[in-house]
Amino acid sequence: MISAYYFGAISLILIGLYAILTKRNLLKILVGLSIMETGVNLLLISVGYVSGRTAPILTEGATPQTAVDPIPQALVLTAIVIGVATTALALTVAINLYEKYKTLDIEKIRGLRG
Amino acid sequence: MNPQYASLLIALPLFSAFLVPLIKRAGKKVILPYLTLVTLIQTGIAAWAFKEVYTTGKPIIVLAGGFQPPVGINLYIGHFAALFVLIIAVVSFFMTVFSMKAIDVEPIDKYAMLFLLLMLGATGMIATGDIFNLFVFMEITAISAYALTGYNKTGEASEAAMKYIILGGIGSSFFLVGVALLYGSLGTLNLAQIAMLASKMNPTVAQAALALLVFGLAVEAELFPLNAWAPDAYQASPHPVTVMFSAFVVKAGLYAMVRIVYLFKDTPAFMGILNLILILGTLTVVIGELSALRQTNVKRMLAYSSIAQIGLIAVGFGVATPQAVDAAVFHMVNHAIVKALMFLAVGYVAITLGCPCIESFKGLGKKMPLTAFAITVGAISIVGIPLFNIFWSKFRLLLAALQVGKTGIVALILGASLVEAVYYFRLIHAMWFEESKDEKVEENLAFSIIMLLLVALIIVIGVYPEPVWNLVQKAATDLYNVANYIKNVPLLGVSP
Amino acid sequence: MVKRALAIIIILITGYWLANALAQVPFGADKMLVGKYYLENVKEQTGAVNAVTAVVVNYRGFDTLGEVTVLFIAATGVAALLWRKKRERTAKSEGSVVLQTGSRLLLPFIMLFGAYIFIHGHLTPGGGFPGGATIATAFLMLYLAFREYEIPHNVFEPLEGLAGMSYVIVGLIGLAIGGYFLFDWIWQTWQLGHANIGRLFSAGFIPIIYTLIGLKVGTELTGIVDNMVKEPKEGGQ
Fold it and tell me: Which terminal residue of chain B, N or C, has fewer Cβ atoms less than 10 Å from its own Cβ?
């Protein structure tokens, strides 16, 4: 049996993937992408968790023996920023696409084929 | 000189990109010459690093912040990285010259920044020695590539960029899950330490993690089925950017994939992953070549041809004997040269005659004889005619496949060459033997020089392959010899 | 329907496969290797009490430099793709009185709070990225409240570039003084603030870098907002 946190993270990843694979509206696909990224971040964080320990800020009371792993948290910080960057750029491209084709339905946007 | 100065390879393009908003105040005309200057300096640094690595025979290890790996991030500029960083810098330099003519869409200052950061990302991907840092550089490459793909702001460009973003997003999520699995079982992100501890990892987890990483990188490395973005992006992006995609961005992705997979050479998970790469590579070759056959847009045809060649390189890495890896790296170098030439020439035709469609190429031998000559040499080389550079790498690949008795791969290479012959000779026929009413065009001197340089390189390597072959063998050993890789990275004694 | 069924099958297989692999990575167990080293040495080597910050800025400085770059690329890319000859705000109406007065009143406080977050990055959760995002919200509010409002572009663009350049320069000074790119010269060579661990003036160059990142992130996100609220003017391409 896997832990609830892993289960939650995997579910989020799969929900995102489902949205990407089946939705026709571009914005919904991008939302799916964001959900997937959130799932990945949750997974990274839960990989670094150590039962019963606290945040790795070593002020009053917290010692190296009572802190969780700081690396995954640093990684997630980076991953979040990268996710934001991708989303911002994707939305921009969506704006451009809408301006050209007047629709966000991916079935109707097909200039390039073959 | 202090080898730590190799960190300038990362620092210089970054600094220069941040400087562009200030440069812009001096006028729009200054930006592209400034870009040329920066890439020239970058070429100088890369050449110095290359000389350093190949004369001492030892890799340059750059420690960020002075922390020893695995505590800090290190750059590992070994034989492979030194060679490819130099290729990246030189190709970028050529492309800045090309950009002066090829880029007429505003805003040029943003183009310059994105251009530099694309170069930076590919350099970092090849140089880094840390798996998460690899992810960061991959995203730098990918995100600047998204923006450059959509740069022309036409419907096609936006569509290609959107495809690229969606596939890239899925890829990077997969990659991160792979990193999470690796980190969760080994507690480290340093590539050398991962290789050291790889045999302690649970085989199921290792296999899953590697498969995820391979899928994540397959987007950048343009392997089937995650390469749906590539033909569109190649066709729709500005011509210099297409050259960069084909010459080094895809190579960086492929290198990263191979580096990571080879770290697990001595584990039970390795064989399964090799088979995965072989299958993906074979499918990429078959689908790439067959799609190239029915294109009427020459740029798109070259894009499919490029994808197919990448598939061949992946197959070489999938065979994974030392000979096959040598051949694959050789093919990588040759392909970078030839495709830089081809996309440059085709892009030049497209900006002079308006479109890269097959009609423009009819009678090109009369309209632009030098460009037509360059395209012809490139085409002959790709097909694998002796005395041209790609012949040697295809030949070595054949030999390597024969040695391990994989006749399927031999058939694949021969079949691919046959299909290539069909569509490339069609192009050559159109250029030299069909008539066109258009007048002769004055060819640009700078581009002619660049094209002739590349043509000369193709022929020189074709006639005297030995010097380059020796370089390439060293580079391939760097990839293949993981024990040496571990030994070269000064790991701090952090052990479980 | 076929597409949907296919998607569900793919997802179920992927999910099963992922769960299978993850079952071998025990949840909540102490798997630290490099992490332990960080926790044990962070105070003495970097002077930061927040280990995550030390990892982000000091130990894995290349990642953060790359991260800043990624955001920079996004801002640049958004500006490049939305570039038109003439663009203007197209909001139909002004914000309500409450919104307008509120945003004016709150602006300095939000900016102060953002600055607080990034200056105290080495002591408390937070740092340059959240701090910068907080500052950007202040400008977002101005955009929502006023129909005609635009940020002073000739200040923001150079500031963004300058902040990024200063980050690289801080790293290069490390290369010149300590021999390593992104070397923490303030803490390790000059040994400033060693008596102050846990107070504001400590942790070497972390507060400096986080201030630069905060400024950069703030200006970049504001720039993205600015680009996205404007639409091409009729007649201008």
Answer: N
Residues B90 and B36: beta-carbon distance below 8 Å: no
> CA–CA separation, C72 vs B82, rounded Å?
27
Selected residue of A82, A87, A113 to mutate for chain B interface (largest B Cβ count, 10 A)? A82
Which tens digits make up the pLDDT trace of B442-471? 888 888 898 999 999 999 998 998 888 988
Q: Three-class SS of residue B202?
A: coil
- Total domain count for chain A? 1
Give residue limits of the domains in chain B: 268-485
* C-alpha torsion sign, points B144, B145, B146, B148: positive
Query: Is the CB of residue C129 less than 8 Å away from at least one CB of chain A?
Result: yes
Residues contacting residue C228 through CB under 8 Å, at least 6 positions apart: A91, A92, A95, C78, C82
Domain total of chain C: 1
- Token pair 């495809």 in the structure block, residue: B163
Shortest CB distance from A33 goes to which of B147, B153, B169?
A: B169
What mean pLDDT comes out for the span C138-164?
Answer: 85
DSSP letter string, chain A: ---HHHHHHHHHHHHHHHHHHH--BHHHHHHHHHHHHHHHHHHHHHHT-BTT-B-SB-STT--GGGB--HHHHHHHHHHHHHHHHHHHHHHHHHHHHHHHHS--BTTT--S---
Nearest chain A alpha carbon to C50? A57
Give A-chain residues touching B173 at CB under 8 angstroms.
Answer: 13, 16, 33, 36-37, 39-40
Domain membership flag for residue A45: yes
Determine phi and psi for B111, rounding to 5 degrees.
Answer: -60, -45
C8 domain-assigned: no
From the list C20, C35, C69, which residue is nearest B14 (CB)?
C69
Asked if C38's CB is within 8 angstroms of A71's CB, the reply is yes
Range of the domain at C103: 32-232
Is residue A56 situated within a structural domain?
no
Cβ-based contacts of B153 with chain A (< 8 Å): 96
Q: Is the residue at A61 inside a domain?
A: no
Instruction: For residue C156, count other CB atoms closer than 10 A to its CB.
Output: 18
Query: pLDDT tens across B229-238, in order?
Result: 888 899 888 9
Q: Is C58's CB within 8 Å of B495's CB?
A: no
Question: Between chains, do B185 and C73 touch, taking CB under 8 Å as contact?
Answer: no
Across the interface, whether the CB atoms of A58 and C39 are under 8 A apart is answered yes
Chain B positions in Cβ-Cβ contact with residue C205 (cut-off 8 Å): none
Q: Is residue C70 part of a domain?
A: yes
Q: Which domain holds residue A72?
A: 4-50+68-101
pTM, full prediction: 0.94
Selected residue of B159, B204, B291 to mutate for chain A interface (largest A Cβ count, 10 A): B159
Q: Is residue A11 part of a domain?
A: yes
pLDDT for residue C236: 43
| Min distance C97 CA to chain A CA atoms (Å) | 30
